[in-house]
Write a structure and sequence with these properties.
The complex is a heterodimer.
Chain A (H helix, E strand, L loop, with lengths): L2 E13 L6 E13 L3 E5 L6 H9 L6 E6 L8 E4 L11 H12 L4 H9 L15 H14 L4 E5 L7 H18 L3 E4 L3 H7 L2 E6 L4 E7 L11 H15 L4 H7 L3 H8 L5
Parallel strand pairs in A: 3-7, 3-8, 5-6, 6-7
Antiparallel strand pairs in A: 1-2, 1-4, 8-9
Helix pairs in contact in A: 2-3, 2-4, 3-4, 6-7
Chain B lengths: L1 H26 L1 H21 L7 H14 L1 H33 L1 H16 L2 H12 L4 H24 L3 H9 L4 H39 L4 H10 L3 H30 L1 H4 L4
Helix pairs in contact in B: 3-11, 4-5, 4-7, 4-9, 5-7, 6-7, 6-9, 7-9, 9-10, 9-11, 10-11
The chains are: A alpha/beta, B mainly alpha.
């Protein structure tokens, strides 16, 4: 497998509020995502997860380092699902998708196919205001998929939804991944979401942010949230981000033999 | 079964006709009631005061019908309307440019600020007088006076409209690499439409007031000129007749054109799934 996206020695700093000094948010961060894999990034609030996503989609530029897409010869197509759907409310559902497909130079039939993937084809002529929050977020997901993306960025995509809708969305995302095998990078606070959906989870810690742990999840899909190994990984990830300790210390804190063993081997094996 | 099938559409038809009657009574009756009350009040006042300066409703409407019948009234109104539309077009072009620049550039906003504040404070009468002095009896006089009088208010509307655009949508367009023209067409224009429409409304109401002043002072045609003629002969019914005629035209523009456009452009707000 080859890398779909590669972050090399990424550093990013911002001016502080008094504008006299700069605060480094990310320093020498390097990692990559393999083709067809879904990587989640978790960590405490304000650590720079969203900054990392903004750097990847070009909304911000790194101070140093580079981001290389696997298919560097062509302009990479990046689909993004934001926390809020960010739909143009004066356009119908299908028109919202056409804006993205037209800009990406992709046939409009892809929009309809993506709508069918999120089970919203019958709402194609509806205006976003007439849809529920979950349906609107499904339209946003369809927009990201419609451009035949090289990579899909998900910025806490289900955090604005109620738990039931979020759970449905997670199952839908898994269903779509099984069909399309897209490459994805997801920012989330929800460790269960990360454990359930991802092939790999990066845990960010410290100031400036560093990768404190890389946790692989090799359990085959389709997965179930109730699955013991998913729950075990969820608990492990929760401990990693709640404890202000290094991964070595975290491993010592996990007292049961199972949990220690879980750290030593990839999840789902 | 057959009863159920036939009873459903009938119920729907009855329901829809009832709701359309209710809608009509909510939208048409109140303004109609206002007009009737105004006329009744005027008639009572005219009868009570018994003065040639307050004519009764009958003679006023005789003048209105006379103006409408001969065609002279429509000709003068047309002249004024063409001047208003020309001036508004000119003012809109300038305001669109200045409003966009001001909304997008902080330094430009600070630079234009005193001009806008002054422009909003200066009465239309000043522009009317100055333009008559500068350009005399020429087509430039009404157009420039109106543009100077209306542009500051329109610029403020455009600036507010552009500033109101949700930055998260601009970010989304950037991520999806939406082209410049598509952004203008699908994002900027629809998002600023409510402000632009309100600007056009404000512009029309200001324009009519400024135009009348310009025509009174420096033109030999148009409604302002006719109002001045009626004033010089102390024909109050004539003054009111011209005002009513032009008021009717402005109502047609508001209800027939502006509200139709607004209704069309904002239908997404009212759409509900069947």
């Amino acid at each position: 497998m080859s890398a779909a996206i590669e972050f090399s020695n990424i550093s990013k700093s911002y001016a502080t509020t008094d504008k006299r000094t700069r605060r480094t948010v990310l320093q020498d961060l390097s990692f990559s995502i393999e083709e067809g894999e879904l990587l989640s990034i978790i960590g405490p609030s304000g650590i720079g997860k969203t900054t990392l996503l903004h750097l990847a989609v070009g909304l911000e530029r790194p101070d140093s380092g580079s981001i290389r897409f696997g298919s560097a010869s062509e302009k990479p197509r990046v689909g993004m699902v934001f926390q809020q759907p960010r739909l143009l409310e004066w356009l119908t559902v299908e028109e919202n998708l056409y804006i993205a497909t037209d800009a990406a130079g992709v046939d409009r039939s892809e929009a309809l196919s993506a709508l069918s993937d999120v089970h919203l084809e019958e709402y194609r002529r509806a205006y976003p205001l007439t849809l529920s929050g979950g349906q609107r977020q499904r339209v946003a997901l369809a927009r990201a998929l419609a451009i035949r993306p090289n990579i899909v960025m998900l910025d806490e995509p289900f955090s604005a939804l109620d738990e039931l809708s979020a759970r449905r969305m997670r199952l839908l995302l898994q269903e779509i991944w099984l069909r399309r095998r897209f490459t994805g990078m997801m920012i989330t606070h929800n460790t269960l979401e990360a454990a359930f959906l991802s092939d790999e989870v990066l845990v960010l810690k410290g100031k400036p942010a560093q990768i404190s742990e890389r946790v692989r999840n090799q359990r085959p899909r389709p997965r179930a949230e109730e699955d013991a190994s998913i729950f075990e990984m969820h608990r492990h990830l929760s401990r990693l981000i709640t404890d202000e300790q290094t991964s070595d210390e975290a491993a010592q804190v996990l007292s049961t033999e199972d949990s220690t063993a879980a750290l030593a081997r990839p999840f789902g094996c | 079964m057959a009863t159920t099938l036939t009873s459903i559409p009938q119920g729907k038809v009855a329901g829809s006709s009832w709701s359309s009657i209710r809608r009509l009574s909510q939208t048409v009756l109140p303004p109609l009631a206002f007009c009737v009350l105004l006329l009744c009040g005027w008639e009572i006042m005219a009868r009570a005061l018994h003065s040639p300066l307050i004519p009764r409703v009958g003679p006023i409407f005789e003048e209105v019908f006379a103006l409408a019948r001969t065609g002279d009234g429509w000709r003068e109104i047309w002249i004024t309307l063409v001047r208003i539309v020309s001036g508004l077009f000119f003012a809109s072009a300038v305001s669109l440019l200045l409003g966009v620049l001001s909304a997008r550039n902080r330094m430009m906003a600070a630079f234009l600020q005193p001009g806008i504040v002054l422009g909003l404070a200066i009465p239309g009468l000043v522009w009317a007088l100055l333009c008559v002095i500068w350009f005399g009896v020429s087509w430039l006089t009404p157009v420039v006076a109106l543009a100077l009088g209306v542009a500051p208010a329109l610029t403020v509307q455009v600036e507010q409209g552009i500033r109101s655009i949700d930055n998260s949508l601009v970010e989304m367009a950037e991520v999806y690499r939406v082209g410049r023209w598509a952004r203008i067409r699908y994002l900027w224009i629809p998002a600023t439409t409510p402000f632009l429409l309100s600007g056009v409304r404000v512009g029309f109401s200001l324009a009519w007031k400024i135009m009348v002043l310009v025509e009174i002072f420096g033109m030999s045609s148009g409604i302002g000129y006719q109002l001045n003629s009626e004033f010089s002969t102390q024909n109050v019914a004539g003054v009111l007749a011209w005002t009513i005629l032009f008021g009717i035209v402005m109502l047609v523009i508001e209800y027939g054109i502006l509200q139709t456009i607004e209704h069309r452009l904002t239908r997404w707000r009212r759409t509900k799934l069947a």
